[in-house]
Structure formats: C-alpha cells, structure tokens
Amino acid sequence: MKHCIILTTCPDIESAKKLAAMLVKAKLAACVQLCPITSFYCWEDELHIEPEIRLIIKTKALLYKSVEAFIKEHHSYDTPQIIQTPIDKGSTEYLAWIDDNTIDE
Fold it and tell me: How many CA atoms lie within 13 A of 30 on its CB side?
C-alpha cells in the first residue's frame, strides 16, 4: 500500500477548515475533504449525539505517523479519531497527483 485515506473529525466547520488547510500547506495531505456528520458515541459513561465535520485526508501511507502526530498536536479533542484506510487501487493520474502534492519522508 503506497497511498491511504486518514479519517478524523472536528467539532465544527471552522476548526475543520483550519486543520485541513494546515495539513495541505504542510504537504502532509494532497487533499482534504470535509463532510458534515452526526456522531453517536459514549464518552465518560455518557451517550453523546453530536454534529461533527469528518475530514477525509488523502495522502501517502508512509506519512501516516506524521499526520497522526500533526492531528494530535493541533486538535481540540483529548482523543481524536485518527484512522487509516488503505487505497488499494486508484487512477494512475490521481495517485501520481497525491505523490506530487505531498512531501517525501
């Protein structure tokens, strides 16, 4: 696996836009898409139903640890969701574009 998608969430559109822009400017991500969602989860033994913004981060798999550290450093949550999903297949041109728009590490 050379490429991946990393998922995280933010509590609101402003913080999601800020994190997305920082990831792209740092070339840790070629593209970040934002989607409004509703999350159901338990935190400190209480059920929460909250609006959130999902960030779909497209990058190289070898950048996962750097992206994870970056999110942890800049995120407002104590325990942000950070999940990697491999990209098994994709158009050659799009995957090359990801390579061209992210740093080598």
Answer: 17
